[in-house]
Amino acid sequence: MRKKIIAANWKMHMTQSESEAFLTTFLREIEDNDTVEVVIVPPFTSIPKVSELLTQTQNIKVGAQNMYWERSGAFTGEISPAMLRELFVRYVVLGHSERRAIFGETDEIVNRKVHAAYEEVLRPIVCVGETLGQREKGDVEKVLSTQLRGSLANVGAKELHETVIAYEPVWAIGTGKTASAAEAQKAHAFIRKTLAELTDEATADKVRIQYGGSVKPDNAHELLTQPDIDGALVGGASLDPRSFAQIVKAGAPNG
Q1: Is the pLDDT of residue 29 over 90?
Q2: 210 within 8 A of 7, measured Cβ to Cβ
Q3: Per-residue pLDDT tens for 104-153?
Q4: Rounded to an integer, what distance in angstroms lies between the CA atom of residue 130 and that of residue 167?
Q5: Strand ranges (DSSP E) for 118-238?
Q6: Cβ-count burial of 165 within 10 angstroms (0-12 exposed, 13-18 middle, 19+ buried)?
Q7: ∠ at Cα 103 (138, 62), nearest 5°?
Q8: How far is CA 67 from the centre of its chain?
Q9: Chain-centre distance of CA 78, in angstroms?
Q10: 37, 96, 98, 105: which is the annotated catalytic residue?
Q11: Is 159 labeled as catalytic in the residue annotation?
Q12: Distance CA 231, CA 38 (A)
């Protein structure tokens, strides 16, 4: 049984004081959670405060929204995996569609970051997903296969087991549109099939695959009860502690 993993991607929101206020309410809302792994992914400036506030929690980890692949060097404005480790970061989101679309990140760049994450014992959350135009042309599986094979090039079974995949249809991010549960499940099943081709079925069966794309309290349960959907990468709804808590509760076995 794969343990559900629900991540809050705050993007460029939440100052340190706002993060503290969020967690004060959120922790109270889910104080009895012991079945779902939660990841809070704040902006870099709020990571120290979030790490401090989550020191005593068991099922809540800290993530980062991005990183560079070098350990150090003359890379103005970048953050290294070693720096993240010192802040007690456990997960790092790589290849998010906004990074790909706005900052021109390619599968090759994502792959370099993935391998750098493994070297610092960080668990990558690798994002893949198609645009609306690609979906309308019937290229969903082609796009997912290309992104997975490129982003996970030379990744072995041991490393893949420490990896989370996030399927995020680009057309559903921040738009209010959501893939139907059936559409999402079909994409997740294809991703798992592709992971099996990259390694083996036993490894692929252990990998957790999240859905990301306008996940809200009112659609979380239907999405999270699909056989190949193992969690959610939540954007807008994760900025409200009570909404995010409801999504976490929807991921519980009795949610």
Answers
A1: yes
A2: yes
A3: 999 999 999 999 999 999 999 999 999 988 988 999 999 999 999 999 99
A4: 9
A5: 123-128, 164-167, 208-211, 231-234
A6: buried
A7: 95
A8: 14
A9: 20
A10: 96
A11: no
A12: 9
CA 133: distance to chain centroid? 23
The pLDDT of residue 194 is above 90: yes
Cα-Cα-Cα-Cα dihedral sign, residues 233, 163, 231, 62:
negative
Q: How far apart are the C-alpha atoms of 51 and 33, rounded to whole Å?
A: 18
Alpha-carbon dihedral angle through residues 10, 15, 17, 19, given to the nearest 10 degrees: 10
Q: Go through the chain and tell me how many residues it has.
A: 255
What's the pLDDT at 124? 98
> Which member of 105, 130, 159, 168 is catalytic?
168
Distance, CA of 160 to chain centre: 14
CA 87/CA 85 separation, integer angstroms: 5
- Smallest CA-to-CA distance from 251 within 67, 10, 2 is with 2
Ordered structural domains, the chain, with CATH: 5-250 (3.20.20.70)
Range list of β-strands (E), the chain: 5-9, 37-41, 60-64, 91-94, 123-128, 164-167, 208-211, 231-234
Residues 170, 98 contacting (CB under 8 angstroms): no
Query: Does pLDDT of 173 surpass 80?
Result: no
Residue 201 appears among annotated catalytic residues = no
CB 50 within 8 A of CB 23: yes
**Residue 238 scores a pLDDT above 80:** yes
Give me the sign of the Cα torsion angle 105, 160, 38, 212: positive
CA–CA separation, 160 and 204 (whole Å): 8
